[in-house]
Amino acid sequence: MEKDSDADAFLVAAIRSGDQRAWKQLIDRYSGRLLAFARTRLRGVGEAEDALQETFLGFLTSLPHYDPERSLETYLFAIVRYKIGEALEKKRRGGAPAPGFDADESSRPLEPAVSETPSQSVMHRERVARQEHVIATLLRGLIESFRDRGKLEDLQVIELLFYVGLRNKEAADLLGRDEKAIAGVKFRALGTLREMLDQLEAEDRGLLDEVVSSDATIARVWRERRLSCLKRSTIGSFLLGVLDEPWQSYTAFHLDVVKCEMCLANRDDLAAEAAEASDAAVPERMFQSSVGFLSTGSR
Ligand SMILES: [Zn+2]
């Protein structure tokens, strides 16, 4: 539930100035989990690795637009998701891909962060961004209140209702809890949200009126900001079975019940790492194929 945002911001600043070592470091840090994620969607030989290469090139191309306030990991996952979509679309259309140079693809501007609102005005985009920020702040406050009270089993309830979109009864069945207990958790969570809402500026409260009823927006903000995702080290401890409760149960829930794709990719990557899989050479290949774009691509 935390991000290494300072370290990432430092890394990105170095990459922007053309620092090759920083670029290698970013590739080393993120190749494994992005590749594991791509492999869940692209099963042909080499397809996932191609998507990974496109992801790093796309990152360099879009670097001028990258907002360091955003989580680097989330941004990279957005790009790889986009690249996987492109690869699947190509396969769906069938036939061999149109001839061209590798660099043609990677020199195209890419802005996955704003792809959902391509034609809207800047003002509208800013308003949406502000709304999402306010929603994220409220949800994060709620999630932290569960964590601080050691009530992760109640977080499971809220995650199923708000994020996965289940009904009370479905959540009760899945968690083996009483439906009344589920309703109680939801009632208290809404109370907590209302208290936090009352402390917001009137202007921000107004912003929320339009979206607060939209479950889809809440689920999307939750997913995109990875509000209840686990630290990589927590997933590592989980795999080793050395995590204390309630974290062990919560991690199992987030992986196996919610099936969070990004945390599953992290888990698969960690598992492969533990098994000393032969992917050790992947980051070096990624570096060699992208370093040429570093100085031109990043400014
Ligand atoms: Zn997650």
Description of the molecule:
- The protein contains 16 helices and no strands.
- With 299 residues, the protein is mainly alpha-helical.
- The protein has two domains: 5-115 and 280-297, Rna Polymerase Sigma Factor, Chain: A; 122-228, no CATH class.
- Helix 1 (5-16) crosses helix 2 (20-41), helix 6 crosses helix 10 and helix 12 crosses helix 14.
- It is globular, with a radius of gyration of 21 Å.
- Bound molecules: zinc ion.
- Zinc ion (ZN) binds at residues 226, 229, 254, 260, 262-263.
Question: Can you tag this structure with a few keywords?
Answer:
299 residues, mainly alpha, Rna Polymerase Sigma Factor, Chain: A, 2 domains, 16 helices, binds zinc ion
Radius of gyration equals 21 Å
SSE run: HHHHHHHHHHHHHHHH
According to CATH, what is the topology of the largest domain?
Rna Polymerase Sigma Factor, Chain: A
Helix percent reads over 70%
Give the secondary structure arrangement, pairings included.
Layout: H1 5-16, H2 20-41, H3 47-62, H4 72-93, H5 102-106, H6 122-148, H7 152-164, H8 168-175, H9 179-198, H10 202-211, H11 215-224, H12 232-240, H13 247-257, H14 261-274, H15 282-290, H16 294-297
